[in-house]
Amino acid sequence: MSNPWLALQTGVDPVERIGEIGRAHDRFLAAGAVDERVRRVVAESWRRSAHALLQPDSTAPIDLADAELDAYRAEHPLAAVLPLFREMLGDAAQDGELLAVCDARGRLLWVDGNRAAMRDAEAMNFVAGAWWDEAHAGTNAPGTAVAIDHSVQIFATEHFSRPVQPWTCSAAPIHDPHTGRLLGAIDITGGDQVANPHSLALVRAAARAAEAFLAGAPRAGDATVAALGRDEATLTVGGKRTKLGRRHSELLVLLISHPEGRTGEQLGLDLYGDAHLNPVTVRAELSRFRRTLGPDLLDSRPYRLRTVVDADFLAVTRLLEEGRVDAALDAYAGPLLPGSDAPGIARLRTDLEVQARAAVRASRDPRLLDTWTRSPWGADDLEMWQALATALTPQSPRAPLARARAVQLAREYDATWMQRLGK
GAF domain: from which residue to which, for each copy (predicted)? Predict the structure, then answer.
């Protein structure tokens, strides 16, 4: 069976393949149709690139440079494994290939290679600080690897952008071993010789080695957050407990729920929605939030937490995913920040409550249903009272109360469940 992530299968002539895919690329740009001989991973990437209105002759824009780039790289988690990458892949970089590392959004952090290769790479802006995600650079191994979260090889004319088509690259994504968050990708870029199983296996091995290194690296003190059933969250770091204000509680929950990070604009929409979004207000709030948490916990560009933070609402989700509904219900202390009207929090709160409620109802366990209806958030839940009345045996002491409460709520909600009870 052929490997869909490899660019060239055994016995394929590279020159013929370049011409074949090049003609398919031209047809795609002209008519939007993808030839069946184009690999699926490439065809889907071409469509994403075209959807982003990327021009096929464009070059990647440079986002960061000089001191700003240095500061960003110094704070990035992959800075710790750069010596490992250079040790494992440095020989390839000196043989005319390029070693590159990008962040989770496809921005290049480091590019190493000999002088001639680096000079050629600069001509297409394959340099540190440049955007090489698909939206800015089209189909390419590091950008596509972070887009699909899978190792991949992109060969010559498979690149969407024509200036990149003389090159071939192999890349593999790297994850935080503690949280699973995507950190970026490791890439080897060079000529046609890169289109082989060895180069793809090499970047995969480098990515796994990086994750193993990070798994053993010292971490900041464990941090936990309690945000269920309370309007203001509490943050505990290294045994020190801090109660946060309402807005900072919302920001912390949003960042925990988006470990990949959020831009200032995204956080503004999460907090205020379109109608009340004021960039000045958002920046001021984020500045105060940074002072509250300190630089050791909060990163920027994008805003994200720099250490592992667990939370009671994450624990509930994990337990539900494991099918441990009883344990999840025990851990569910109530709705997530119930007093918050921030749109982003409201979505998270609803999603968690729907998930927990559905799991309890699907269990048909009278004990779990009874626990739900006894809670403040379940006391007026008609469907859950109905489910409890159905699940209880006629001999149960709680059965008459469950039936009566269900009938009462049905009347209040103008429902028709009374007919199903035969009343």
Answer: 103-211
